Amino acid sequence: MAPKSTPASSETAFNAFNTLWKAYRDGTSDRLKFIDSFLFFLMLSGIVQFAYCILVSNFPYNAFLAGFSSTVGQFVLAASLRSQVNPDNKDEFKDVSPERAFADFALGSIVLHFFVYNFLG
Amino acid sequence: MFALKRVLLLAVGLASLVSATSSTGNSVLVVVEPKRQDDFSMFFEGLKDQGYELTFRQPKDEKPLIAEYDVAAFAHVVLLASETKNFAKDITPQSLVDLLRLKTNLIIALSTKQTPLSLLAPEFSLILPPPGTPLISYFPKRDEPASLVPITPTKRDATQIISDTSKPIWFSGVPQALGSNPQLVPILHAPAESFASEIDGGSADALVDSAEKGGEGLWAGSQLSVVTGFQTLDGARVTWVGGVDLFSDELAQKVGPDGLKSGNAAFARDIVAWTFQESLVLRIDKVEHHRVNETGPSELYTTNDELVFNAYISKFNPKQGSWEPYSGINDMQLEFTMLDPHIRTALPPVRSVPGKYSVTFRAPDRHGVFKFVVDYKRKGWSHLHSSVTVPIVPPRHDGYPRFLSAAWPYYAGAISTSIAFFLFSALWLAGEVRESAKRPGKAGKAE
C-alpha cells in the first residue's frame, strides 16, 4: 500500500469500518444479530460493574464477584450459543442441532444464575 | 476419720477466728536452742498475745515433725537456731523448700557461722559474705561494739511493711547481697557506711584488698540487705533475718545513746505480720464477664462485642481476722489474650462499690479461644492471678446485615442479567416458532 497522509488514512479507516458494518448488517442473519445485541448488553453491564468496583467500592466483595461473574458467565454461554447456531460453522458442529445448542445454553445459564444468587448476599 | 478431722479443724478455726491474726493459720513451730529460748521471751509473749499457738522444739529433737506424709504440721515455722550446725533429720534445706511448697511460712535467722541454713540462702538469691564476717559500722559514734549497728529505716526500705520508721533498729549479724530475683522483697537495708568484715582482723588494708577484687569481694553499703523477704509463686513467704539477736529481749528494751528507744520489738512484730500472711495479703474473690447491657456471662462472645469484666478483690484485715473489700489498687491491668495479649487495658477500681474493679472494652475483630487474664505481682503484696477462658466466634449468618446499599450496582447487574436471559430465551423461542412456520416456503429457496 502506498504511503498516505493522515486525513486520508483516517478516511480509509472510516471507509473500512463502514464497509465492515455494512457487510455485518447485510450478511448476518437476524438471529445472530439478536445474540450479538445480548452480548453487547452483557459487556456493558460487566464494564459498569467493574468500573463501580474500581472507582467506588468493592466492599461486599462477594456481591461484586457474583454480579460480575454472572455477566461474564452469561457472555461466555451466549457466545458459545452463537458459534453453535452460526450456519457458517455447520461443519464443525455436525452433531449439534440449533435446538440442542439452545437447550445447553438454557441449562448452563440456569445453573449459573443459581450459583450467582447463592453468592450474592 | 478424715472428715472428722476436717470438722474438728473447722471448729478450731471458728473458735480461734475471734483472735485470729493470720490469714493462713495460727500454729507456729519455733525451733530454738533451749539455752537461748529465754532470750526471746518478749518476742514469744508478743506472738502468744496475738493469738498464735507456739510449739517449741530443740534443733536436735525428733518431734514434733515439721511435715508428715507431705502435709505441713504447722502454718508457720520460725527457725531461731541460727548457729546450730546439726539439725534433726527432718530439718534440711530440702525439707524447708518443700514446706514452702506446702504454703508454710518461714522466718529463718542467719548467723556469721556456716550452717545448713546459710547454705540454703543462695537458693533464694541471697549472697552471703564469707563465714565470720558480720556487718560492721563505726557510725554513729557510740559505746556499743562496732558489730551492733543501729539502723533507721529509710525510704528505700519496705515502708509498707515497716510500721514505725522513726526508731532505730539494732542489728547484729550478717548482711546479704541481693541477686536479681524479682520475688525478693528487701525489708531492711544496711546503712550506707556499713560493711561486712572480720571484727578483729578487719584492717584497712584487708578492706582495700577486698574492694579491689570487686563484686563479690566486698559486701558494703546500702545495697546490702539485713532483713530480706521472699515470696514464692505459690504465695508462701519466707523472711531471712541476718541476726537472731534482732528478736532478743535485750535489744528490744535497749535505749540508744541519743535516748531513743529501740524499734526492735515493733520491727519484729512487722516482720511476723508480713511473713505470717497478716499484712499485704490480697485475694481475688471472684471475676465476672458479660456483654454490656447483660447481667449473666455468655457461653461465647462474638467478635467486636462490647464486653464488661469485673474483679472483686479482698484484703485481709488482721485486726478483725476477716477479709474486707479492697479498692486501693490503681495499677492493675486486664489482658485479653490469645497467645499474645490482643488487648491490655487498665482495670481501675469502681468508686461506688468497694472491692470492685471493672473495665469495658471491645472484643478484638478476631475469632479464637481467648482468656481474661489478671496478673498482678507487686513486691511485698501477695500475687493475684486469675485466668478465665472464653471463645470468641464470628457473627452468625443472621447476625449482620446481608444486603448493603453500597452493593446495589452488583445486585442490579445480576438481576438484569437474569431478566435479560429470560427475555432473550422467550424471544429466541418465539422467533423459532415464527421461523419454523415460515420455513416451508423459504426452505425451497435456501436449498
TrEMBL record, chain A:
**Membrane topology according to the record:** Multi-pass membrane protein
Task: Kindly list the places in or outside the cell where this protein is found, as annotated in its UniProt entry.
Answer: Endoplasmic reticulum membrane
Protein's UniProt keywords contain Endoplasmic reticulum: yes
Q: Which domain of life is it from?
A: Eukaryota
Annotated GO biological processes are:
protein N-linked glycosylation
Give UniProt keywords alphabetically: Endoplasmic reticulum, Membrane, Transferase, Transmembrane, Transmembrane helix
Q: In which pathway does it act?
A: Protein modification; protein glycosylation
Mind telling me which residue stretches traverse the membrane in this protein? 38-57, 63-81, 101-120
Q: Which InterPro entries does the entry mention?
A: DAD/Ost2 (IPR003038)
| GO function term, MF aspect, one | transferase activity
GO CC entries: oligosaccharyltransferase complex
Listed under subunit, the entry gives:
Component of the oligosaccharyltransferase (OST) complex.
Return the similarity comment.
Belongs to the DAD/OST2 family.
Relate the protein's function as given in its record. Subunit of the oligosaccharyl transferase (OST) complex that catalyzes the initial transfer of a defined glycan (Glc(3)Man(9)GlcNAc(2) in eukaryotes) from the lipid carrier dolichol-pyrophosphate to an asparagine residue within an Asn-X-Ser/Thr consensus motif in nascent polypeptide chains, the first step in protein N-glycosylation. N-glycosylation occurs cotranslationally and the complex associates with the Sec61 complex at the channel-forming translocon complex that mediates protein translocation across the endoplasmic reticulum (ER). All subunits are required for a maximal enzyme activity.
Q: What name does UniProt use for this protein? A: Dolichyl-diphosphooligosaccharide--protein glycosyltransferase subunit OST2
Per the UniProt record, the source organism is Pholiota conissans
* Taxonomic lineage of the native organism: Eukaryota, Fungi, Dikarya, Basidiomycota, Agaricomycotina
TrEMBL record, chain B:
Give the GO molecular function terms. Answer: transferase activity
Membrane topology according to the record: Single-pass type I membrane protein
> What keywords are assigned to this protein?
Endoplasmic reticulum, Membrane, Signal, Transferase, Transmembrane, Transmembrane helix
The signal peptide annotation in the UniProt record is: 1-20
Task: Say which domain of life the source belongs to.
Answer: Eukaryota
Pathway given for this chain reads: Protein modification; protein glycosylation
Q: Where is the OST48 N-terminal domain?
A: 28-275
Which GO CC annotations does the UniProt entry carry? oligosaccharyltransferase complex
List all membrane-crossing ranges. 408-430
- OST48 middle domain: from which residue to which, for each copy? 289-430
Q: Where in the cell is it found?
A: Endoplasmic reticulum membrane; Membrane
Tell me one GO biological process term.
protein N-linked glycosylation via asparagine
Stored InterPro entries? DDOST_48_kDa_subunit (IPR005013), OST48_MD (IPR055459), OST48_N (IPR055457)
What this chain does, per the record? Subunit of the oligosaccharyl transferase (OST) complex that catalyzes the initial transfer of a defined glycan (Glc(3)Man(9)GlcNAc(2) in eukaryotes) from the lipid carrier dolichol-pyrophosphate to an asparagine residue within an Asn-X-Ser/Thr consensus motif in nascent polypeptide chains, the first step in protein N-glycosylation. N-glycosylation occurs cotranslationally and the complex associates with the Sec61 complex at the channel-forming translocon complex that mediates protein translocation across the endoplasmic reticulum (ER).
**Quaternary structure, from the entry:** Component of the oligosaccharyltransferase (OST) complex.
Query: Which family, according to UniProt?
Result: Belongs to the DDOST 48 kDa subunit family.
Name by which UniProt lists this protein: Dolichyl-diphosphooligosaccharide--protein glycosyltransferase subunit WBP1
